[in-house]
Amino acid sequence: MSDYPVTAQTRLRRMPERGQYDQATVHAILDAGTVAHVGVLIDGAPVVIPTAYWRVGEDVLVHAARATRFARALRSGQRASLTVTLLDGWVLARSGFNHSVNYRSVMLFAVPEEVEDAESKNRLLDALIERIVPGRAALVRPATAKELAATAVFRLPLAEVSAKLRSGPPKDDEADLDWPVWAGVIPLALTAAAAQPDPRQSAGLPGRPPL
Amino acid sequence: MSDYPVTAQTRLRRMPERGQYDQATVHAILDAGTVAHVGVLIDGAPVVIPTAYWRVGEDVLVHAARATRFARALRSGQRASLTVTLLDGWVLARSGFNHSVNYRSVMLFAVPEEVEDAESKNRLLDALIERIVPGRAALVRPATAKELAATAVFRLPLAEVSAKLRSGPPKDDEADLDWPVWAGVIPLALTAAAAQPDPRQSAGLPGRPPL
Ligand SMILES: Cc1cc2nc3c(=O)[nH]c(=O)nc-3n(C[C@H](O)[C@H](O)[C@H](O)COP(=O)(O)OP(=O)(O)OC[C@H]3O[C@@H](n4cnc5c(N)ncnc54)[C@H](O)[C@@H]3O)c2cc1C
Ligand SMILES: Cc1cc2nc3c(=O)[nH]c(=O)nc-3n(C[C@H](O)[C@H](O)[C@H](O)COP(=O)(O)OP(=O)(O)OC[C@H]3O[C@@H](n4cnc5c(N)ncnc54)[C@H](O)[C@@H]3O)c2cc1C
Ligand code: HEM
Ligand code: HEM
Description:
Two copies of one chain form a homodimer. The first copy, chain A, is 18% helix and 38% strand. By secondary structure, chain A is an alpha+beta fold. Chain A has a single domain (16-166), classed as Electron Transport, Fmn-binding Protein, Chain A (Pnp Oxidase, Chain A), CATH 2.30.110. In chain A, a hairpin with a 2-residue loop joins strand 4 and strand 5 (59-65). Chains A and B meet through strand 2, strand 3, strand 6, strand 7 and helix 3 of A and strand 2, strand 3, strand 6, strand 7 and helix 3 of B. Chains A, B: This is Nitroimidazol reductase NimA-like FMN-containing flavoprotein (Pyridoxamine 5'-phosphate oxidase superfamily). Chains A, B: It comes from Plasticicumulans acidivorans.
């Protein structure tokens, strides 16, 4: 797979050895993530909005109610920034200074494009449902024309995008290696627990998540 | 405990019933979170930067290398936005439209203030270490004057701040309750696995995390 171009905006200046620009890495982080944080300008100041997102090909998608502040900011024609972060662990070094975090993150910049026609919105929103529980989109009560009209969907093309990753044990100064404190990593991961059925349903319905 | 004022900036317009402004809720979300997403203006456009953070009293703190773009943006005198998001579950409804996420989030707005003196920076950075493994700050190799000089610490006061929360089962339309698809919640949580010791250390050192 190919690489995304490194632009003035996406070139890592701090710890550039942690940067990656290949499609496979960027896609893998986006597909493993759950929530994105979108930066938009509102009254000239940045606002960071947490939101569900999904990827279809070379587009990252987000959705909102048509008439919200969030949707208005996304259709304003201004550049937005979208970041997805996976926290993989606390890195405990011998010195305070060398403590760190293991992570995988993607940052992208784009002018969001609104998806206007109901058919495309429907298909894209189905992909959001499929991402969470594969096979579920065909089982749920389909969206009505009114619901689709109330929903705004935006695509942010993967063009100006970078990934940054840290993994592995602490990187201590040589002189600190004998300092008498435990050093290592506390691994962290987002994990799912057993699904909790809504009590108001009959037994044995299809679409139950595997866990 | 008291409430934060509801300002033009922090008043929830969408789903205001999910908003909370009391100190206890805001503190609890901040103390349970791990990573913040900070929105800053760079060349007039918003950039969303993932970062470690911590809370001391009525300040949220972040740190960075003194000379980075991130640090320069934080000391620019412009308003920043900081968001902490806890993902608690996928909410699977009978209709696609009523699918949702269970979450707890805090959004705050502030002009960051740089902490200048080395003694305060040292004390505050110790609080970051303590938040991750209580008792660890006293065990690690202390920060040197050079390390503290290379580190920028910023406080964002808790003044313009809101929390927003969703919990519980799907909220389906009455007419959909008999739609033949499983409905409920997939609970999600960030969990720690067994600590991985750096191989380059002798056995039995203090400061090992409990797990
Ligand atoms: C979980 C986590 C915790 C972190 N904690 C801290 C912290 O406490 N303090 C701290 O200073 N930094 C922290 N970072 C790193 C932080 O996100 C920035 O990478 C760093 O602060 C440098 O920012 P900058 O804008 O000065 O970087 P620059 O290198 O100047 O940024 C230039 C370009 O590099 C790319 N880039 C920069 N950062 C990232 C990223 N994280 N992911 C993808 N692309 C990126 C973007 O395209 C950006 O426009 C953390 C990162 C993660 C994921
Ligand atoms: C995990 C998660 C996933 C989400 N997924 C989506 C999604 O896919 N689509 C979608 O439209 N929305 C989603 N939201 C809600 C989203 O964060 C916004 O609340 C919503 O989009 C309305 O934004 P707005 O700027 O139009 O709100 P407004 O109500 O106009 O915002 C006004 C003020 O309310 C407060 N506020 C707004 N949102 C939050 C928040 N999340 N936390 C704390 N304070 C807040 C802030 O002070 C803000 O300045 C999600 C939230 C979370 C936490
Ligand atoms: C548990 C405590 C700490 C954690 C979790 C932590 C985490 C981090 C992370 C994730 C980064 C970003 C690295 C990257 O860009 O990939 C960072 C950068 C940095 N941290 Fe910390 N840190 C901690 C304690 C400290 C302390 C105590 C100091 C100073 C005494 C410090 C000084 C710095 C500096 C100077 C940078 C910038 C590095 C650079 O860009 O070159 N940190 N920290
Ligand atoms: C698994 C799939 C989905 C997930 C995880 C999801 C998640 C969310 C979340 C978290 C919100 C924000 C709620 C809040 O502010 O607290 C939201 C809002 C919204 N969603 Fe979805 N959604 C999904 C599918 C859909 C579909 C299929 C549609 C349309 C057919 C839709 C339409 C909307 C609309 C219109 C809003 C705005 C609600 C409002 O602000 O009044 N969503 N969604």
